[in-house]
Specification:
Layout: E1 2-8, H1 11-19, H2 21-28, E2 32-38, E3 51-52, E4 62-63, H3 65-79, E5 84-94, H4 97-103, E6 108-113, H5 121-127, E7 130-133, H6 143-154, H7 165-168, E8 187-188, E9 191-192, H8 195-198, H9 202-220, H10 222-225, H11 232-240
Parallel strand pairs: 1-2, 1-6, 5-6, 5-7
Antiparallel strand pairs: 3-4, 8-9
Helix pairs in contact: 3-5
The structure holds adenine.
Adenine binds next to strand 5.
């Protein structure tokens, strides 16, 4: 079973993810362990201080290397194995579904949240396996980012979702965005569900969905589409399901 620890100055913020729907259920069912760890517990200062001003001057405070390193070492000691240590920061490699799949293979993951202006660089050099950003914007700390990573990784762990189909069909699993989905009624405010979906013809439905995924990805995310290798079957499908003009909706230009 996978275990995720979140090292933070604000354990309350991370405990919320731990109780959250699917992840909370998985945790209670013993499919996944998630726990937050308070970095301050590793301070040797009488007032539990863990931060100091940056050498060379500048704004704000940095978290010292020593309490962070001790926190990692204690995780290794308590669990009897070295954790894969991820430091969340806007300087990291941008998080993707592919990275979530990779991290879901780890037995023990330690997500370290920075705060204030960051952490002493020597902690990163000495203890961190990889630095991850959840996007090109700056948050006030790593806690929200750690929650994002914990949820994206946790839901991929065995037994957390009911069926593998849950994530093999969704956006980003195979580098494509998901096809559109519809439920009853078959006609809603003048808009009909695409006929092929009502046909019960599974091969045609699968073909239509593949084409929709390809077209939506090409249109919305040319950066992703560039990396897709189209099969011969894809070329046939694209020819068979020609691009339809998008139906005009309310508020859209006619
Ligand atoms: N901490 C602050 N901003 C962040 C971001 N974009 N990703 C990860 N950690 C962060």
């Amino acid at each position: 079973m996978m275990r995720i620890e979140i090292a933070t100055l604000f354990p309350d913020m991370c405990d919320r993810v731990i109780g959250e729907s699917i992840i909370g259920r998985a945790r209670r069912a013993g499919k996944l362990e998630i726990e937050s760890i308070n970095i301050r517990d590793y301070s040797d200062d009488r007032f539990h201080r863990i931060d100091d001003t940056p050498y060379g001057g500048g704004m704000g405070m940095l978290i010292e290397a020593e309490p962070l390193a001790r926190c990692c070492e204690d995780a290794a000691r308590r669990n009897g194995k070295r954790p894969h240590v991820v430091y969340l920061s806007p300087k990291g490699a941008v998080f993707t579904q592919q990275k979530a799949v990779e991290l879901a293979q780890k037995e023990l993951l330690l997500l370290v949240c920075g705060h204030y202006e960051g952490v002493d660089e020597r902690f990163i050099e000495a203890c961190v396996d990889e630095e991850i950003s959840i996007g090109d914007y700056v948050l006030t700390g790593g806690e929200l980012a750690a929650r994002v990573v914990a949820v994206a990784v946790g839901r991929l762990c065995d037994g957390v979702l009911s069926d593998a189909v849950c994530y093999t069909e969704e956006s980003h699993y195979d580098g494509l965005l998901e096809y559109p989905q519809y439920t009853r009624p078959a006609e809603w405010r003048g808009r009909r569900v695409p006929e092929v979906l009502l046909s019960g013809h599974h091969a045609n439905i699968a073909g239509w969905r593949r084409v929709q995924s390809l077209r939506i990805t090409a249109h919305r995310r040319p950066d992703l589409y560039e990396r897709v290798t189209l099969t011969e079957q894809d070329h046939k499908l694209l020819a068979r399901f020609p691009e339809e003009p998008e139906p005009a909706g309310e508020g859209e230009p006619q």
